[in-house]
Amino acid sequence: MINKKVASVSDALKDIQDGQTIMLGGFGLCGIPENSIAELVKLEVTDLTCISNNAGVDDFGLGLLLQKRQIKKMISSYVGENAEFERQMLSGELDVELTPQGTLAEKCRAAQAGIPAFFTPAGFGTEVAEGKEAREFNGKMHIMEEAYKADFAIVKAWKGDEAGNLIFKGTARNFNSCMAGAANITVAEVEELVPAGSLDPNQIHIPGIMVQRIFQGEKFEKRIEQRTTRKRD
After folding, report:
1. Which of 115, 154, 165, 170 has its CA nearest to residue 21?
2. Would you say residue 233 has pLDDT above 80?
3. CA atoms of 18 and 70, how far apart (whole Å)
4. What is the pTM (predicted TM-score) of this model?
5. Total Cβ atoms within 10 A of residue 217
6. Neighbours of 180 (CB within 10 A)
7. What is the DSSP letter of 5?
């Protein structure tokens, strides 16, 4: 069995270069590859195109890369809670491609499955459809969306084995599951890394064939983006 384990996040991301396109899993601050994002900041790579549901918050997640002006273009479904993201977008400093959330997920999944394009009704008749082929199916208009082409997909999983098999936990599965295997190289950051054969095959969400590198992260903060509580009786 092929061993995909690398010693550290530095080894996992050592060949990322300026100007590349990177998918990053997560939703808000849930299930984001914290160690990998910190390493990208440390590497000081620039002119990146990042495909992610959103850009975290100002001082955490992809917000750290925005602060350092390392991102040239964001492909996301919404601005979210990141004021710096909003500021850079409105000022024209950052190229932003806003995409319907389901379309963004499917463009990742299509790349994962080797499907070059698909038709969806989402966005027809809006700016999203500009310059795209449109066809009618069952009396309803659809636009053609092409699968993403990315150099790296960086995902975060709860548990993985040395062969690259991954298990996600709860809602942290989000975009991580459709981004794994959707780029030339997939890097998996996991909370717990176990020997190959240790995981129950029935519990595996992503098979190791979709992962090229895996490492065990450390010191996960797992911040909460919006904490809502109720008063005790």
Report:
1. 154
2. no
3. 9
4. 0.92
5. 21
6. 27
7. B
Each residue's pLDDT tens digit, 161-183: 999 999 999 999 999 999 999 99
CATH topology of domain 9-115+148-216: Glutaconate Coenzyme A-transferase (3.40.1080)
Question: Do residues 103 and 147 make contact, with C-beta atoms less than 8 angstroms apart?
Answer: no
By CB atoms closer than 10 A (0-12, 13-18, 19+), residue 23 is buried
Give the separation between CA 149 and CA 152, rounded to whole angstroms. Answer: 9
Cα pseudo-dihedral 63, 64, 70, 71, rounded to 10: -20
**What string of DSSP letters covers 187-227?**
EEEEEEEE-TT-S-GGG-SB-GGG-SEEEE--------SS-
Instruction: Give pLDDT tens digits for 8-49.
Output: 999 999 999 999 999 999 998 899 999 999 999 999 999 999
Residue 126's CB is within 10 A of a number of other CB atoms, namely 10
197 to each of 108, 189, 207, 208, how far by Cα in Å?
28, 18, 12, 11
Both tokens assigned to 8: 């550290």
Q: How many Cα atoms are found within 13 Å in the side-chain-facing hemisphere of 155?
A: 35
Spans of all domains in the chain: 9-115+148-216
Beta strands in the chain (DSSP E): 21-24, 48-51, 71-76, 95-98, 117-120, 134-137, 140-146, 152-161, 166-167, 185-194, 213-216
78 has pLDDT over 90: no
Residue 152's nearest CA partner among 19, 57, 63 is 19
